[in-house]
Design brief:
This protein is mainly alpha-helical. The protein has ten helices and five strands, in the order E-E-E-E-H-E-H-H-H-H-H-H-H-H-H. It has two domains: 118 residues, Arc Repressor Mutant, subunit A; 141 residues, Tetracycline Repressor, domain 2 (Orthogonal Bundle), CATH 1.10.357. 52% of the residues lie in helices and 4% in strands. The strands form two sheets. Strands 2-3-4 form a three-stranded antiparallel beta sheet, with no helix packed on it. The longest helix is centred in the last third of the chain and has 27 residues. The termini are far apart.
C-alpha cells in the first residue's frame, strides 16, 4: 500500500493506544566482577546471557501496554516507523517471524493494519528493516565504545570484549537476526543478511589493518581473515548465549575465550582489563 501524503507529517492513533508502548530497550545494568547484573540482580553477560524469564521481563518493558488508557496523540512518520520496528522486534522475538502476523503487530502497537502498510509494504519488509537496523546499532555502539581510545591495540582489546549479541538490547535484535537461518531461500532476506555482516566485517577489518600498520597486532594473517575469525567466534558465542548454554566459553581455570583472542592477536600486556567485557 502506498503511503498517504498526510502520514509524512503525523497521524492519529486509534483509541486505546498503549501510551509509551514500544520504547527502546536501554541497558540499566551494573557490572559486578566479570559479569553484568541488571537492576534486579539478574545475571546478564558472559555466562548464559539472558534467561527466558529475564528476557520476557525485558521485552515486556520494550512493548508493554498501559491497557485501558485512551490517547489521541499524533506521531511523526519517523517516530511511527520506529515504534512499529520496536514492536515488531518484540513480537518476532517472542512469536517467531514465521508465526507472527501484522494483525498481532497492529494490536501491540495500538494502530490499525493499514497504518503498518503505510510504512512497510509487507511483514518481510519489517523483518529486513530490523536486520538492517540491528547492524547499524551495532556499529553505533562500537564507535561510541571506541571513541576515547586512540591506541589501536586498546581499540581492538575493547572490540573483542564488545559482542552485541549478549547485551539486553543486542540480544533482542540478534534473536530476530538468527531467525533468518530458515529464510535464506528468500533472495531479499539473504541480501539483507549479507549487507549486515559486510558492515561489521568492514569495520573490524579497518581496525585490524590500522593496528597491523602500527605493529600493534600480529601481521601473520591478513586483517580480512582475522576479521572473519572474530565474527565467526562472536556469532558462535552469541548463539550459545541465546540458547542459555551455561558456562560456555570458559575452562575450569576461568580462562575465557576472549583472553585467548587477545593473547593471540594483541600479545601479553597490551590494552587493559575492562570488567564485564563480553566476546
Amino acid at each position: 500500500m502506498k503511503q498517504r501524503s498526510g502520514e509524512a507529517g503525523s497521524e492519529r492513533e486509534s483509541a486505546g493506544v498503549r501510551a509509551g508502548a514500544c520504547a527502546s530497550m536501554g541497558s540499566t545494568n551494573q557490572r559486578i566482577g566479570g559479569d553484568r547484573v541488571d537492576g534486579r540482580g539478574r545475571l546478564v553477560g558472559w555466562v548464559g546471557g539472558l534467561g527466558d524469564v529475564a528476557w520476557r521481563r525485558v521485552s515486556g518493558r520494550a512493548c508493554g501496554a498501559r491497557r485501558g488508557r485512551r490517547s489521541m496523540a499524533r506521531l511523526p512518520a519517523a517516530e511511527r516507523r520506529k515504534q512499529l520496528l520496536d514492536c515488531a522486534l518484540v513480537l518476532f522475538s517472542e512469536q517467531g517471524y514465521a508465526r507472527a502476523t501484522t494483525a498481532q503487530l497492529a494490536k501491540a502497537a495500538g494502530v490499525t493494519e493499514p497504518i503498518i502498510y503505510r510504512h512497510f509494504p509487507s511483514k518481510k519488509a519489517l523483518f529486513i528493516a530490523l536486520i538492517e537496523r540491528t547492524g547499524d546499532e551495532t556499529l553505533s555502539r562500537w564507535k561510541a565504545d571506541l571513541a576515547d581510545a586512540a591506541d589501536p591495540a586498546e581499540r581492538l582489546h575493547r572490540l573483542i570484549g564488545d559482542n552485541p549479541m549478549v547485551t539486553p538490547r543486542g540480544l533482542s535484535g540478534y534473536r530476530v537476526f538468527l531467525q533468518a537461518i530458515t529464510e535464506t531461500g528468500d533472495e531479499e532476506i539473504r541480501e539483507a543478511l549479507n549487507r549486515h555482516i559486510a558492515k561489521l566485517h568492514t569495520f573490524m577489518c579497518r581496525e585490524l589493518a590500522e593496528a597491523q600498520g602500527k605493529h600493534r597486532v600480529t601481521s601473520r594473517y591478513s586483517a580480512e581473515v582475522l576479521s572473519w575469525l572474530l565474527i565467526n567466534i562472536g556469532l558462535g558465542y552469541g548463539v550459545l548465549t541465546a540458547m542459555a548454554i551455561q558456562g560456555h566459553g570458559r575452562d575450569e581455570a576461568g580462562v575465557h575465550i576472549q583472553d585467548v583472542l587477545r593473547r593471540v592477536l594483541i600479545g601479553r600486556g597490551e590494552g587493559r582489563e575492562r570488567p564485564g567485557d563480553v566476546v
